[in-house]
Model the fold of this input.
Amino acid sequence: MSAGATEAWIVFPQSRQVEIHDRFGRCESTGFPVDIAALFV
Done:
């Protein structure tokens, strides 16, 4: 992650999946108020 980043998102558009990582590793959800399902509409 870049300096100052709190999360990194890896988006897989074909499989409609998102991996979210923070400084400790992979997370189950984002810390931001975002509807991730809306990314694929």
Summary: The chain has a mean pLDDT of 90.
